Here is the input.
Amino acid sequence: MSAAQVTPARLEQSGPALAGGAWQPEILAFCCNYCAYAAADLAGSRRMQYPSNVRVMHVPCTGKIEMEHILAAFEKGIDGVLIAGCLEGGCHFLEGNLRAKRRSEYLREMLDQLGVGRERLRMVNLSAAMAPTFVARVKEVVETVKGLGPNPLRKSVP
Ligand code: FES
Here is the structure.
């Protein structure tokens, strides 16, 4: 799925993730095709476990993720967002990951100002072979967001 397909209508379909009745954070992981998505795929083929409340969104490059996509996700109640791109210097579109890094830093500031919290957005850089690192970063994001609680922009949590 490309970032262009992350529409507000699609995000509206998501609801609070529940496990045994307890709140579980919903995390969206934007993974670039060439490295991070391959790392996620490798993690899957190696049967490495990571939390099921993380939805992986396949994007051609992290540089293609517009700020509107991230903000729309938070507005619709997503509790945390992970942006996973190629290693610096390894972007297949040259500087897409650097552009994504600048955007994510700007958005983290904005999330603080909105009262959502910068910690809900994290960007990481991976190679295609870094499946264990992908799993570790995903688990870190889930634990961080669990500590923060539900996204305050979420209208209601059962
Ligand atoms: Fe992976 Fe650009 S192609 S971040």
